[in-house]
Amino acid sequence: MKKTPTSLIAAMSLLSSLAYAEDPTPGYNHTIPAKIMTPDRVETRIGTLEFFDGMPKAETVKKLYDNLLLMRGVETFLSGIPATSISGIQHGNADIGAKTSNQVVLFDKLLDSSPLFLTGNTDTVYASAFLDLQKDGPTVVEIPSKCGPGTVNDAYFRFVTDMGVPGPDRGTGGKYLILPPDYKGDLDGPIGSKKAEIDGETYYVSKSTSYVNWLILRGFLVDGKPDTAAKMFKDGLKIYPLAKSNNQPRMEFISGTGKSFNTIHANNFEFYKELHEVIEREPVGFLDPELRGIFAGVGIEKGKPFEPSESQKKILTEAVAIGNATARSLVFRPNLDGAKYYENSGWMTAFVGGDYQWLKNDGKGGRNIDARTLFFYQATVNTPAMVLKMIGKGSQYAYCVSDKNGEYLDGAKNYTLTIPANVPAKDFWSVVVYDPQTRSELQTSQPYPSKNNKRSNLDINNDGSVTLYFGPKAPEGKENNWIQTIPNKGWYSVLRLYGPLEPWFDKTWRPGEIEPVK
């Protein structure tokens, strides 16, 4: 058998490879993968983008930079809500006279619907104060025994420490010391507090990441009344600089009940000004570089004035409108896994993911920033106690914006909600109605738009359940169980369980759905 010459084999191989070779891309010596190339014209939702050999033309460049500012503006709104929200509460406190840490807004007759306050409840006595660690330095908070759940949050609504029942004092009261972010000394102040002896006294010490910190304490009703809790705060709550331990400023308690004031951030261009104020006040390290970079992308940077041009202001005005609409979609029609408490139910959790830092899958999935927006657009206070399974302690929440058919709740219509017997709440349960515009208590002829099993004289069904009624007018004979709504306005509800028990967590007990009355 004859052997094929080596030269012939090589020639055949070359011909074979040439037969399968692609032609070079025009303008190149070789074939360039199409996936790395940019066409001369690209159609997008922001219009036609035109290029000269991959280089954007002048009109396209302007369009893209405008769009970049729009995107950064939307992201600044969604990511800046925690900072502007807590700043809004601080301004609200100041508007009624609480401007220093020893001045406390006390809802001594409970939080009614007069103030604008994100999903505040009508059922506990709030004591609200702001610490200024830049002015006062390390600051002491003495809380009385039997104080309900209390929390300190930093200026981005991050958890600093709990107090009261869920805190390290476990309801026995005690002294807490909050250190400023630039503190340099011998004290160790981890998040969540650490015990320390100072001049023979025991303190729970934490170090905050910001100068401004919000202190919010709650006291429980006794016999359905707020008097005992209000007295507890007036007699036992003290806030003062550590340096003035022997010369403490006199405490001043300012009633917030029945007063109209605003604590909510802006949803228009003013939002960016509010955020700039926070960034200017706090230390640079208060936020991580990534977040600071997003804010700087719209002109909000520490040490620089926020002075957008008229054209930039126009784009940012559109951006905040889109951001606001996006936040409202996340709250009222969430598409997040885990938002629903039960299958085929309208009840949802505001703490999606069950992590107070909004970390997904123990951080492997990063931070669930949409879940963070969902929470802070409608609520305040960030603490592990709101998400941890703490049988008989702390609190649990569920909110509902739709009836059993999935339709938004209409203030002109009538609805019922049945709360089954044996509610798994050691302390009490309540249902409060809110305004979707302000995310604050719905303003009606009822100053307290809610029902509470300890405060309200509820009619109970034969099986131990309670049926609540919602509508413009009370059904005849159901006045005790009726919560008023307003025609031409929407509404939504929050169910709260204080001292939640096992059947809430294992879901063997669940509330009924809100049902339209035909």
Q: Low-confidence parts, pLDDT < 50 over ≥5 residues? A: 14-20
Structural class: alpha+beta
Fraction of helical residues: 10-25%
The portion of residues forming beta strands comes to: 15-25%
Strand sequence of the main sheet, in spatial order?
8-7-12-5-4-14
Protein name: DUF1254 domain-containing protein
Signal peptide: 1-21
Domain DUF1254: 102-241
Keywords: Signal
Short description:
It comes from Rubritalea spongiae. This protein is α+β, with helices and mostly antiparallel strands and 518 residues long.
Topology, please?
Blueprint: H1 6-20, E1 41-44, E2 47-52, E3 55-56, H2 58-95, E4 103-106, E5 125-132, H3 133-136, E6 139-143, E7 150-153, E8 159-163, E9 174-179, E10 194-198, E11 201-207, E12 212-219, H4 227-236, E13 238-241, E14 252-255, H5 270-281, H6 289-296, H7 310-332, E15 347-348, H8 369-376, E16 395-400, E17 415-419, E18 425-434, E19 450-452, E20 466-471, E21 482-484, E22 492-500, H9 502-505, E23 515-516
Parallel strand pairs: 4-14, 9-11, 20-21
Antiparallel strand pairs: 1-2, 2-3, 4-5, 5-12, 6-9, 6-13, 7-8, 7-12, 10-11, 15-16, 16-22, 17-20, 17-23, 18-19, 18-22
Helix pairs in contact: 2-5, 2-7, 2-8, 7-8
Signal peptide: 1-21
Protein name: DUF1254 domain-containing protein
Organism: Rubritalea spongiae
